[in-house]
Specification:
The protein has 40 residues and is α+β, with helices and mostly antiparallel strands. It is 45% helix and 25% strand. The protein has a two-stranded parallel sheet with strand order 1-2. It is flat.
Length: 40
Amino acid sequence: MPKKVLLVDDDEMLRKMKEVLRSKQGFEVTAVENGAKTLQ
């Protein structure tokens, strides 16, 4: 079972890049663009 990661970054390009990298490392990634969405 992959470990889960919550990724928060307001820069869309960086967020997507980090999401792809973490996914390739075997993590299950949930990516959001701001703190308010993080709390949801």
